[in-house]
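User: quick one
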Amino acid sequence: MPVQVKINGIKMSAEPQETVLQVARRSGVHIPTLCHLESVESTGACRVCLVEMKLGGKTQLTTSCNAGVEDGMEIMTDTPEVQKHRAANLEMMLGRAPGSQKIRALAREYGVYESAYVPSEDPAIPGCILCELCVRVCEALGHSALAAVSRGGKKYIGTPHDKPSESCVGCGACAEKCPTRCIEMTDTKKTRTIWGQTFDFVSCETCGAPVMTVRQRTHAVETKELPEDYYTTCVACKQKNLAGRFARVGS
Amino acid sequence: MAAQPTIDTQRLDAVLGAFEPGDGSALIEALHDVQSEFKYLPEEALDRLADRLGVSKSRVYGVASFYEGFHLEPRGEHICTVCMGTACHVRGAPRLLEHLEREIGIASGQTSEDLTFTLEEVACVGACALGPLVIIDGKYHGNTTTSHLTKVVGKLKKD
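Assistant: Done. Structure below.
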């Protein structure tokens, strides 16, 4: 049964399994996020999606990405209190990732131009805000090659025993989805280097462009029971081939 | 960092055999059992434990590295723990630690090359009235002095 909520004073109807962020975005209310990705579990790690939530006479700040809606909830997404805390969180993240365009731009929106925070130790991955989105993405793709290792000031993202992981297929999803783009990935025409190992690319049968890594392809073919010759052409060539086939059918 | 010695797989199998295959909820318990068997968590054991419990190797490594109580490096035969709590600190614990570092020849947090000693600090063991306090192989040496420690460690060295 749908529940009734109010977002910034406007009444909204929502499904009980929806999150505050989903309802807000659906209704065109902007809430900034860094570590949120619709397809993986939200953990509220970056804490920039904070909103003020009033329920049963009690008001509290909560991360909207992983807070479920409840009947009678009143949500305010841009109060001075919300702005103050988002700014504080952004300042801390700016200290860890001063080179990240995304964080700098977002921090500027909240009036934060520089950070008083400096990481206590040299971070293993400079620019990493430890939101663990890479870990969640890797797990969702069925590889689970990454983990948050150690804790506190020493915490970092790494592979088991800090050695090249046999579970990693070199898909690069971690680097692609990282909000601060801090994961080092080097591509050449034939190979990709990431997390301490180098993967060979499958080259497109038609044009020779890289399609994906050999190990990623093997993993996909095995787990999704795809035909042996799947993923042997790149997307552009595949589209061209298909377009050609449709043109012939049409003529 | 001492090189990881090869482990007795039969002993490992015996420990892991007690757990239901695929029972991921037993992760911490299994880590404790492996550690009490080998005194630390060998890499190979962590990987085999992951397979047994159906948990990813990265998760096992993440959990094992999170807790202070789990050791990923081989430990010495004799464990010297210096309490660095406030009461022990003001009564000279840093001096005792330095003394032990010199006496054993390793830095705090390290294990000697020949796996005889491990020297470590602890924040507080709650026995403040006995400060300064050093625990050696589970025995509490309260109101201790550098000369007393030299004697105890010297005896262990001979054994």
